[in-house]
Amino acid sequence: MDVDIGNALGTTPGLTEETLERLDDRVASAHERIARGMDADEFGYASLTLPETTDPEAIREATDAFETPSAVLTVGIGGSALGAGTLSDALPSDVDAYVLDNVDPDDVKRLLGSLPLDDVVINVVSRSGTTAETLANFLVVRDAMDRAGVDWTERTLVTTGEEGNLRRLADRHDLPALDVPEGVPGRFSMLSTVGLAVAALQGYDVEAVLAGGRDGMDALSGSLFESPAYAYGATTYALAERGALTNAVMPYAESLETFAEWFAQLWAESLGKDGLGQTPARALGATDQHSQLQLYRAGPRDKLVTVIRPTERAEVPIPETDLEGLSYLGGSSLGDLLDAEFDATEASLAEAGVPNVRIEVDRVDERALGELCYGMEAACVLYGELANVPTFTQPAVEWGKRAARGLLGGGEFPEADAVAEKRELRIERG
Ligand SMILES: O=P(O)(O)OC[C@H]1O[C@](O)(CO)[C@@H](O)[C@@H]1O
């Protein structure tokens, strides 16, 4: 993974070489803190040792219990689904991967109507074992399998904490079960059992993903000028300090669209604390050049754009054409066109003085994805250290959970009462 921060200098908001030099002293101290946390396996910092602590053998042992299925359905939400989804949506596989990470009844009905229930592995993942959406979906999926005459206990893999509903379920029915790693918040768990069980079921090279993570780990150093991950974390932090409160992440690869969704949780849930943070906006190149780029170039100077691309792409030539004004495309290729648009977007933003950072990976494969995700996790941890926020907790998501639970009769929660006090000003069709 390479990071190029040149287009964050002299922009609005923007940095200078002196800013970065001064900031590098703070990066060095932050790295010492991070390294201590990693060495001591401290809560949260343990995430950055997963490339060494994750046991691929344990993952294979659990997943080998299942003959190669035609499909795998992950029932989880947030970090319990997005890491696996990042790999599944980026890499080819003969095993189809589906994710239920929402409780939209129309979507669940549609999916259950199309799934080969007798040839799917249900990969149910929840660290806590109490997440309403995950457990509700699992109960619905299990019921559907019962009604289809499929023994769900033969087709279910559980990944969960030491205790809780899913652990008890696995024990009661002797289900293959994987442990979620201790001290690793869900959004940081892609390089663990949580993100890699599906990869194993889909036939991906799990060791290569972890090797990529180790590449990222080995690249951490006490200087942003020597570590791509820290260069990204320090630059995004310093730009936020100067007003770039949105970070539009724009991969120029369809295969990285789910990665951007994974990044959004990592960045928002880790850094959105104490009135601080940087809103991750999700975009896709080249598509959003015909959409959000207008705002990025000509809208408020309150953002940076992160453009990401693999330098190796599939070869799809564009046939010669006499279409008026388009003959220049003939003989070129879709990859050439996409890369020209990438370069043009970067230059367009720079010319308008909008800060943008380039991240490049050689290609979209297991090792590159492992390094990219590890790098973003390390960048996030560094940003959190520099911003002095509690990176690894997410207390703000609890209020809504209590309100929803109270509304469904799951207990007495004052948050549910607050729902009834909503201020109304309904505007109805005349
Ligand atoms: O794995 P669990 O405990 O079901 O949590 C799922 C997701 O919900 C959160 O805890 C937020 O509610 C995320 O941090 C996490 O990734």
Automatic annotation (TrEMBL):
It is found in: Cytoplasm. Residues 62-219 form the SIS domain. One of its GO terms (molecular function) is monosaccharide binding. Its main location: cytoplasm. It catalyses: alpha-D-glucose 6-phosphate = beta-D-fructose 6-phosphate. One of its GO terms (biological process) is gluconeogenesis. GO terms for cellular component: cytosol. The active site is at 269 (proton donor), 290, 401. The keyword Isomerase applies. InterPro entries: G6P_Isomerase (IPR001672), Phosphoglucose_isomerase_CS (IPR018189), SIS_dom (IPR001347), SIS_dom_sf (IPR046348), SIS_PGI_1 (IPR035476), SIS_PGI_2 (IPR035482). Keywords: Cytoplasm, Gluconeogenesis, Glycolysis, Isomerase. Its EC number is 5.3.1.9. The keyword ATP-binding does not apply. Pathway: Carbohydrate degradation; glycolysis; D-glyceraldehyde 3-phosphate and glycerone phosphate from D-glucose: step 2/4; Carbohydrate biosynthesis; gluconeogenesis. PANTHER family: GLUCOSE-6-PHOSPHATE ISOMERASE. Belongs to the GPI family. Catalyzes the reversible isomerization of glucose-6-phosphate to fructose-6-phosphate. This is Probable glucose-6-phosphate isomerase. It comes from Halorubrum vacuolatum (Natronobacterium vacuolatum). The gene is pgi.
